[in-house]
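Hi,

I'm pasting everything inline rather than attaching a file, because the server keeps stripping attachments. The sequence lines come first, and each chain or strand is labelled.
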Amino acid sequence: MDLGGLLRSWPLYRQLTGPDKLGRGAAAQSPKHVGLRPRTATADRVAKSVCPYCAVGCAQRVFVENEKVVQIEGDPDSPISRGRLCPKGSASLQLVTGPQRLDKVRYRAPYATEWTELELGEAMEMIADRVVEARARGWQERDEQGRRLARTNGFAGLGGATLDNEENYLIKKLFTALGAIQIENQARI
Amino acid sequence: MGSNMAEAHPVGFQWVMEAKARGARLIHIDPRFTRTSALADTYVPIRAGTDIAFLGGVINHVLTNELDFREFVAAYTNASFLVGEEFADTEDLDGLFSGYDPETATYDRSTWHYEGVDPSGSTPKGDSARAKEQTQPMQAGGRGATVEGAAEDIVKDPTLQHPRCVFQILKRHFARYTPEMVERVCGTPQQQFRDVCEAWTGNSNRDRTTALVYSVGWTQHSVGAQYIRTGAILQLLLGNVGRPGGGVFALRGHASIQGSTDIPTLFNLLPGYLSMPDVAHDDLATYIDDQRAGGQKGYGYNVDAYMVSLLKEYFGDAATAENDFGFGWLPRIDGDHGTYRTVMDMIDGKVFGYFVMGQNPAVGSAHGKLQRLGMANLDWMVVRDLTEIETATFWKDSPEIETGEIVTEECRTEVFLMPAASHVEKEGTFTQTQRMLQWREKAVEPRGDQRSELWFFYHLGRLVRERLAASEDPRDEPVQKLAWDYETEGDGEWVEPSAEDVLRRINGHDLTTGEVLDNYLGLKADGTTSCGCWIYSGVFADGVNQAARRKPHDAQGPYEAEWGWTWPMNRRVLYNRASADPEGRPWSERKKLIWWDADAGRWTGHDIPDFPVGTAPGYVPPEGTTGPDALHGDDPFIMQADGKAWLFAPHGVVDGPLPAHYEPHESPVRNPIYTQQANPTRKVYGRPDNPSNPAPPEGGSEVFPFVLTAARLTEHHTAGGMSRQLPYLAELQPALFMEVSPELARERGLTHLGEAHVVTSRAAVQARVMVTDRMAPLRIDGRVVHQVWMPYHWGATGLVTGDVVNDLLGVVLDPNVFIQESKVATCDVRPGPRPRGAALTAMLDELRTRAGITTATGTRVGTAAGVAHVEEPATPDTPTHSPAATSEETP
Amino acid sequence: MTGRNRLSGPLDDVARDAGHLDHPARVGFFTDTSVCIGCKACEVACKEWNAVPEDGLDLLGMSFDNTGMLGANSWRHVAFIEQSRPLGHQDPGLAGLPTGPSGIGETVHAVEPRLRAAPRGGSELGTEPLPNAQDLGMPAFSRPGDDSGAESRTDFRWLMASDVCKHCTHAGCLDVCPTGALFRTEFGTVVVQQDICNGCGYCVSGCPYGVIDRREQDGRAQKCTLCYDRLGDGLEPACAKACPTDSIQFGPLDELRERADRRLEQLHGLGVDEARLYGRDPNDGVGGDGAFFLLLDEPEVYGLPPDPVVPTRNAPQMWRRAGAAAAAFALAGIGAFVSSTLGSRR
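And the predicted assembly:
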């Protein structure tokens, strides 16, 4: 910027020479506020999504910049929601990016008074071991009348109403193959 | 009714407001004046738990004054069908139907059948207790209950005059639901009730339709399924089903709770509402026989194709005709394995491990203490969530720590808290409340250890399969044979499974060509098709992910068929054949939706016809046909065994072919309508750790004189895991409170914003007092009854904390679907903070003693019979944690 | 130099008056409180977009209002008013119920201190109007049937309304701002520039509505910007976009005024005689609001001043003082401006 440009960008100069004699408008505008653009306009990409709270199914647009979610708002194209969101849906950004989110596995050993950390892979192996063991321990081959049950009461599951159809499908399929029948979700509640 | 739509579904409520702006009248019937009431034209107060009495009154008004949409009723419902002579109604048996067995608290339903129908063929093998314990009506939910020979003509009287025709039975059954009776039971002044009757009937005819909206305010009752039946009967009588602007709308509360019912993580269902096999099913043939009746109509008949296609998806090439498509590999159920039974089994030491995914039962399930004591008696638990929720931390911060019922150092439960990926960090579909699947794109990768459930269960399956790969034990065969070969992305051990591939396989394939199927009509029972969920078949029609469609609403037709995908086959209004008259013409120009195009020889219109597209209105199938081919041209209800909507349910509901008003399990008043007090088939768990407050005619009900009901606030979400942790939501409703009327505040000495506590025989919950005119006392059967309302979102973790409201509730279930009665209980309210620690235990002991509560209290479900339904005490080596065990006698 | 610039009365073109010669139409909000469902989506959407901090976790006992008032950390505020009054022809369902007198003394006493602690905020709080509201500078009023004892609670309504900065035609905050931090945008809205505000707080006393407020953390003045950054890209403000029932409507002010007039007429036709527009009139004390409202009761019931007047209207001497201060600040600002501009070039 040359000196002339510098001068012209000075509010008082603009006030004295421009139409905004009281310095309450154009002359007072700081450089940062000239041509201000919303972060939705500068996002790298927009993902089409659906609100994770209730079952109305409001469509969301998820704005991503530098691999971080920077804004979530309603998708006006949706015939369900026409771009609108309730307070919970409007809080989706905080839900996704807030400090309350867990990002490390936490492990509470039997009788322990505090959490400890555990590697994800190690946790997966430990859980698989426990599933195999509990399945065997709770196995019921036949009932008292000798009818075939082919199932286990060793472990149970609860959850699904907040998950994807594809996830529920795998959960039910795996539980069924393992003979685990005690699987339920919020639809029962 | 039973819905606070403006608060629980605010964005959906925009359409109600738009209808209102166009002249629609909005009536809100609810125990309290809510944000929905504030926007309604009319608010109608009602006592919690009495909606059947109210709606029964409207039905009586319709029938007495002949205000039904007669052509609709005569043509499309079973009003004209004759019921067998053996049937006896609540009118004859003082609140019971014929077939009641007080020992099992179930009905033998064989006397409820149509005249001339063989009940044995349509009552599946096994007894009525099994039907109840496995919540068989829920299994019938997706394809209709069976009726033997329903494709043939059922004896009927088209004039609706025969004393045993459904229409006349209905008339007699509801005759005692007069405006006076409605006022006595519901507390609704007669004038307001009559106003609702006139508005509802006046707006239901050829030119006008009325919509009925409900939510969990209807389902969470010991007679919940019959609430919805009552609403459906009324809407059918008025011609408000299958027509635009009509219907019975269930507004569901979680992003994919509809999906988790369709593709169930539920004990008694397989995908697409196929029943879980039970011990009576020796092989696939007996299973199929049990799922359908001979000679019935409708698409439910093709259950063999749906089941075999599912088995082909489950086990791939290993499923062959020779091995019954692997049917023998499926586990069998033989009773109640619902979530509450499972929790009690945890307490009794019968369950060792527990997966909890995106759910917070320590706060969100009824009887929170029972939940937490169950968790404390496990070997291990896996909690998968976005944040640290109460279900993951019960071992250090549950209320039982304070009372000494859980001691951290003595609690052996091993807990794995696994960070979950959020909705923007994974791709997949949610199914929303109107059955629409919408695909979500992945916006960003999850951080750190955050993973999707898809990843978690894919790899858990892989690791378990590795461990069992070399086994020769036959029980491990289904694990080894499982088709676990979904497409993946990435390299190495921890690859990412493809949600789109899973969805494609849910949609199904023609295995002879490898092509994806376009809909469920192409499914076969011979093993040449695979399909993970028959009702979802079509979501990948033409090889395209139809759920990902995002054509703007203003760039397409009024039914927006190109946004997402709705099961079945992208039909938006179910049973829309009923939007046209029997001849296939719209009932009126104003309310036209689909109609018969005689020139083209097909159904056409604004929506996709929910009917065989080429079946002409007057079509009568040849004798002897079954299944879809047996549907007549005027059978709109294509999933029903007889093609008609059921005013009277000869089968499929376990607690009566017609709804009847029963008092809630816990009620301050005697049932004014029948001797039978509450639902005679409700599912009770008579255990020391699950006490009930007494209800008349039992003594002691005066100890808990008020009606307690609980619900959501718009600012929070269910058990709070997704809202109490967020500053922007926590600040909007920062504390647990109770709403009481000024009269109740005065009666109990409660001060606005002061502390008070609500007590039941299970727990005491402390909350701030909100005195408000929005809670008004009601006059019930001559006495003033107060209601108390609380939101239930609080717990021990998060930015705002508070007592768990669900701790106040006991466990008693609707017998059809095993949903708990959490919308109504009885309670007392006391000023000041609640006692803590040992003082709390002592107070609850004292209360139970004063009310005379034993394990048997509330379990004599057949009022006149007086048979208590209590469980055998737990075996001595299994721990019981409840202090109630020492203070109560077990009869 | 103030010759053609006016400080009161109707002003056809606020943006041009502020030196934006080529500018888009003046935009604003029309908040139709008769369709507000009190969901508070506006409060949350505003905070998410503008990264406004959480504003305290206190239960206020003012019906469902736990925000209390507009402030530095709440740029939208939804008021909830429970009243024993009918709403048009609405049937509140109370007739025939066994009711005692509505409200109880304890309610009033519990809420009153909170209202006192919030001198600029507060509508009719809780379930009972304050009997001595006059002490707070508001007119006292009683409701029909208040004195007639038991069985009198026959009417009830629950009002909800989302309040926001009014973006006045003559904005007191802007007129008294000595630093040029506040400015009139080309859209006719009023925005605080955080990079300029020095936290002097003149604007706080300059606002006749008690909207603008200093944030404790950094002392700078804060209020609704009408999402100035979003407007630049043709987007509507976050609150209006989220609003489920379109209670908050955004658009060119002329259009909104026409729409509001039609809505008022419609409501009067439906028997909602108490409906009125607030801030719609260009002849009022602030020259009309850029954000105006359809209310169902007196403004003070919602915590709004009945007759707001821009403080600069009758106080030119005040303006001169402020102008002098502004000049002083501006001079002082030269150095800062030059050094920061030059500094940024390094």
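The first strand of chain A starts at residue 45 and ends at 50.

If the labels don't parse on your end, tell me and I'll reformat.
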